[in-house]
């Protein structure tokens, strides 16, 4: 096993990311439109943040960096646009279509599975680890 991150640290990283993207985007949306909750403004920016920042920053987002965890590919290859699209867009659609049931299942998977992989990790071929970039242990064993 290569140091997978569990449920609570991942949840806290997601909460931090929500604040990091939510507060500035909400403020910009309010200045631009006069509405704090303009989804036409905030949703695309949140999606871009979730897809692009991990690609550009070795699997980290701001929340994951603060929590010292990052997203990596199971096979050890570089995290790319394909994996992140699968992780964010495809998995997000599955969570919406199942009315959130798949998201609940995913949370249990992170808490119960030895490798701590959720549905979106399985779909994208990723996992979340405490390993730093360049760590030779980035390849997940026992897949």
Question: Could you characterize what this model shows?
Answer:
The protein is globular. It is mainly alpha-helical. The relative contact order is 0.19. Strands 1-2 form a two-stranded antiparallel ribbon. It has six helices and two strands; from the N terminus they run αααβαααβ.
What would a concise description of this structure say?
This protein is mainly alpha-helical. It is built from six helices and two strands, in the order αααβαααβ.
What order do the SSEs take from the amino end to the carboxyl end, as H and E? Answer: HHHEHHHE
Number of domains: 1
Chain oligomer state: single chain
**Beta strand count:** 2
DSSP strand (E) fraction?
5-15%
Shape: globular
Spatial sequence of strands, sheet with the most strands? 1-2
Count up the helices.
Answer: 6
Extract low-pLDDT stretches.
none
Straight-line N-to-C gap: 10 Å
What's the overall average pLDDT, rounded?
89
Biggest beta sheet attributes: 2 strands, antiparallel
> What class, by secondary structure content?
mainly alpha
Radius of gyration over C-alpha positions, nearest whole angstrom? 15 Å
Estimated helix fraction: 55-70%
């Amino acid at each position: 096993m290569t140091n997978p991150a569990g449920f609570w640290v991942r949840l806290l990283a997601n909460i931090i990311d929500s604040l990091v993207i939510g507060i500035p985007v909400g403020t910009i949306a309010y200045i631009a439109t006069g509405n704090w909750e303009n989804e036409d403004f905030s949703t695309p920016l949140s999606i871009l943040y979730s897809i692009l920042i991990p690609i550009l920053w070795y699997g980290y987002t701001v929340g994951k960096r603060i929590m010292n965890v990052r997203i990596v590919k199971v096979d050890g290859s570089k995290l790319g646009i394909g994996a992140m699209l699968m992780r964010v867009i495809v998995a997000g659609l599955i969570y919406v279509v199942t009315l959130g049931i798949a998201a609940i299942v995913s949370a249990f998977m992170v808490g119960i599975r030895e490798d701590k992989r959720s549905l979106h990790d399985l779909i994208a071929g990723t996992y979340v680890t405490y390993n730093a970039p360049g760590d030779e242990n980035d390849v997940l064993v026992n897949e």
